[in-house]
Amino acid sequence: MIILNLVFALTAISSIVRTPNISYAENAQTKPEYYAKVTSDDVNLYASPSSLSPNALFEIPKSYFLIIMAEKEDFYYARYNDVYGYVKKNQVSVMDGTPENPFYIQSFRVFSLGGLPLYSKPSAENGSLVAEVPYLAENLLYYGKMSGQTLVPDKSSTWYFCKYTVDDNFYQGYLYSIFCDKIEEDIPLNNETFPIITTPLFPTDIEDGLSGLSNTAKVLIVVGVSVPCAIILYLLIRPTLSRATLSKEKKTPFKRKRKADYFEFDESDLG
User: pTM for the full model?
Assistant: First the structure.
């Protein structure tokens, strides 16, 4: 019972130390989204926080934005339109503003007479079939391009990562660009720009909340937490010690003296 009371007390006190994080969370609720601008070519959205080629989903169109939601080491966890993934931190600029057109929205068509297979990877050999897109289908939404298998010799190796919608269902995958409208060469630049954010987006450690305090203030906080803990521990243990001491005293039996241990006085000895 003592241990449970002590844990409860320590938990209550530690919550006071974490107060700076609570204020940050409240501030984050007023600005839940951060937009990061892609300012160079060859910036990919990855399926996992690794820049290895198999993890790349597609190349994000230059000058457009992602919505940053979290971070993991050298990557941001982000959303481009309705696709979630990871982008390298050093390849985007997080900005303090909300763009009017953050994503490149463009539909396109398939010109293959027999239709075109939509694959899970930019390769007919390594990818699995996701759906069959019919000839002149227009309900295709372009996300970005990705280099893959060259299906037609001496032609492009570019594939389009896209979304195909049909009968209230949608499928995401890759279409070989040779048989589609040309998109990647005609994407207009998004000229929207805002001040760049240089402060941490998602501080989580207690030290982040206390980083603005001096060393003296931090020492006082530690002492202020340690002293109440020691007092609480003493008050919780003291009654137990007192009861143990009293119980020991009650259990000590009275030691009766033996006859040999004392002298019996007789008046005849006075003469």
Answer: 0.65
